[in-house]
Amino acid sequence: GPCCARHPLSLLVQAVALAAALAQGTLPAFLPCELQPHGLVNCNWLFLKSVPHFSAAAPRANVTSLSLLSNRIHHLHDSDFAHLSSLRILNLKWNCPPAGLSPMHFPCHMTIEPNTFLAVPTLEELHLSYNGITTVPALPGSLVSLSLSHTNILVLDPTHFAGLHALRFLYVDGNCYYKNPCHRALEVAPGALLGLGNLTHLSLKYNNLTEVPRLLPPSLETLLLSYNHIVTLAPKDLANLTALRVLDVGGNCRRCDHARNPCMECPKHFPKLHPDTFSHLSLLEGLVLKDSSLYRLDNRWFRGLGRLQVLDLSENFLYDCITKTTAFWGLARLRRLNLSFNYHKKVSFAHLHLAPSFKGLLSLKELDMHGIFFRSLSETTLQPLTHLPMLQILRLQMNFINQAQLSIFGAFPDLLYVDLSDNRISGAARPAATLGEADSGPKFWLPSRDLAPGPLDTLSLEDFMLSCKNFSFTLDLSRNNLVTIQPEMFARLSRLQCLRLSHNSISQAVNGSQFVPLTSLRVLDLSHNKLDLYHGSSFTELPRLEALDLSYNSQPFSMQG
């Protein structure tokens, strides 16, 4: 936490450095802080209760950046920074955190005298986040970036930002949410930010907002409004914001069965998203609609978004929609699509067959479909994707897949990475009998504990194995239920270069026949299994193998007899 004591070893190193300086008859110029390259003075974690006033003998004019992160400075004076004539970056985060964010939940109020920052006319970047301030202080017109997140500021009005014509980045996140409660919403007066004619990036996440603030500057290119309570969106809400390139309105109408933090269920019959909400945003490149309780996709939402490259639709209820939607036909420039955790509550489907409109995603490079919950992966599951010439990354982990026809990936000549980890794969899929929808075939009811798997500590091979990042094709089958490996599993996968099979239950004798089709394989991870490695021909079928991980396969060697 930000208020924890420094590690004793850190203090010892500082003491040794100080002793060495004293032995030479000199003192560090910016004691007790440290001068680092490029004019940075580092005063982090020193338990300072006031801003250090450095000696006039120190090269103060060379200081361009001062970091006072995680100290105990509760009062800033007019003269604190006036002697730093070249200061451009000032970091004051975590000095006096609001009660809800303090490790001990003690209330803290930071006092800032009127000329504290006005005395620094060169200041370009100011970080005041995680401090108990209740109003925007007087600021110099030189500011380019301002961070006021996780403070107690609950009102923004035009007087706060008068004269800040150079400001481009403004962050006011988390001033009213469950960790920093205020029992109301951040109040942004209509036109409060309109005078910021060069503002391009505005972030107002986690503030209990119930509507998009009115009269935002038309210069905005990035607008982040996620995790508020904006459940209705119409064209007037984003009027005149025609320069927008990134818009994040996710988490405003949540599905709480997957939430990892306090969550308010989306009201019935919401969200209400007007068909023309985004139609005038012709420059939009990234749109986030995640965690919005969407059951369907309206083609009109994407009308006019010919430049859209990234679309996040994760954590919705689109399990049925993705088998039928026609919304993707108009998104030929989309590069990344996230559909993860669009599962039906407590249900896994026997099969999943993607809608034909996926064929329209001709520029798609990355598709995330983990956490949709279907049990069989066959050649019909991903058939529309075989027409996509640029698809490189496919994520299918955590789907409860128990049968997988791996040879289908041979139809994707440009795939770089397929992630099937954390499933229940035990063998190859049987050929599909029909081309039904997502809900065809039997449904399995799942216990609630399976519905929101937490983050997994993915074991990395990078420290002791060749990295697979630069290889042409990687397949991850780690943490599944494989007991045996048969060569037919890898039919049509001769170009595979990296294969991860760690944390399965593979217990067969490895005799030189298991990986015959994988003539290009260079990295093989078989760690955390139960392999019988007594056969003299093990892995001889892999002529290009460079790295092999067999760690944690000791069971056959530990048996008595």
Number of strands: 30
Could you tell me the strand content as a percent range? 5-15%
- At the fold tier of CATH, the topology name of the largest domain is Leucine-rich repeat, LRR (right-handed beta-alpha superhelix)
The low-pLDDT segments are: 1-5, 432-443, 446-459
Instruction: Count every helix, treating DSSP H or I runs of 4 or more residues as helices.
Output: 2
User: Share of helix among residues?
Assistant: under 10%
- Mean residue pLDDT: 90
CATH superfamily of the largest domain: Ribonuclease Inhibitor
Give the count of structural domains: 4
Q: Compute the CA-based radius of gyration.
A: 28 Å
CATH architecture of the largest domain: Alpha-Beta Horseshoe
Protein name: Toll-like receptor 9
InterPro entries: Leu-rich_rpt (IPR001611), Leu-rich_rpt_typical-subtyp (IPR003591), LRR_12 (IPR041283), LRR_dom_sf (IPR032675)
GO cellular component, one term: phagocytic vesicle
Signal peptide: 1-23
